[in-house]
Amino acid sequence: MNSLLRGLSATPQLILFTALTLTCIGLGTIVAMGIGTSVFNIPLEDLPLVLSQPESTYAHALIWMNNITQLVGFALPVALFFILFGGASIHNLQLRNTGVFLLLAPLLILSASPLIDFSAFINSLLIPENSWLERTFKPTEELAEQMTSLFLDPNSNVPLFVSFMSIAIIPAICEELVFRGVMLPLLSKITRNIHAAVWITAMLFSLIHVQFYGFLPRMIMGALLGYFVIWSGSLYTSILAHFINNASAFFMFRYFGTLETPENSVFSHWLFYAAAAMAFVMLVVYARKKSVWPWNSFSYLGIPDEQGVKPLHHSRTN
After folding, report:
1. Sign of CA dihedral 38, 40, 43, 48
2. I need a surface site. Which of 16, 121, 242, 297 has the fewest CB within 10 A?
3. Cβ count near 37 (within 10 Å)
4. pLDDT digits (tens, 9 = 90+) for 9-25
């Protein structure tokens, strides 16, 4: 059976990986609930209320339940995919040396704040006040904000490292393994178009969070993370950039007490946005200049190179 699975093309592999991931997310939820009841002594009949109305009393339990859900739901299916299919079809997760992109990726994600903030503004216009969209999406958004604030609030008595690990480290690793590690290479082979693969992966990445007030900015960030992998040839760049983004939000909350940039801070001044936008454009131009994509394009897209040589001339990702 193992050899048969390894012979499958990218489309059935993606279908099976998606089913595997959804199954593991369900399994992770069940395991997390078991941890909540057995380790943290939350009565089973109280779990729905604890999850729908998070309070500081159960903050420690909720953060570990969230960690278990992430690890089982995202890291486990990637490991199982390797066992069943091997790593060849997804280029062994692109776990390669990053080179100069180890510095470029953090700078790019930080300087992308004007683009991400603008997309958040556009996103807000798409959900008018008092509309059916607001009534549909607002409760889920508020619950996610409550849960995040609870994990970040020093008064919740959650150890600082546990909170930092849950917000910045675990999501950066687990989510990148799934989306840029497995889905992006498979979608690249299916579509034979790297831009389509990057943006489809980014859309799925945003959808999985089920937070539609942040759908566009999260999709933009997901696309940037995808291009980091393509330009650098390494998944480490997207993991690092994802970590930097989440860690910045963590420290912003610890310093300002909010996930929103305060209006009176230097980060809200138009000069900061102008400088960041200029830096972002310059960094993108430089990243594309240093991109290894032309040499990875044939194998990554599943296009055989009949001459048996690396393509020296191939359209860049522009």
Report:
1. negative
2. 121
3. 16
4. 899 999 999 999 999 99
What distance in Å separates the CA atoms of residue 79 and residue 82, rounded to the nearest whole number? 5
- The dihedral through the CA atoms of 7, 71, 27, 211 has a sign that is negative
How far apart (Å, rounded) are the C-alpha atoms in residues 179 and 27?
19
* Total Cβ atoms within 10 A of residue 283: 19
CA distance 68 to 80: 17
- The tokens of 267 are what? 């980060």
HSE on the CB side for 184, CA within 13 Å?
A: 32
Q: What type of residue sits at position 10?
A: A
Which residue type sits at 137?
F
Question: Which of these, 144, 141, 132, lies nearest to 171 by C-alpha position?
Answer: 144
Domain positions in the chain: 95-300
Q: What Rg value do the Cα atoms of the chain yield, rounded?
A: 21
Encoding tokens for residue 14? 């993606």
| Residues in Cβ contact with 211 at an 8 Å cutoff, skipping those fewer than 6 apart | 140, 141, 144, 218
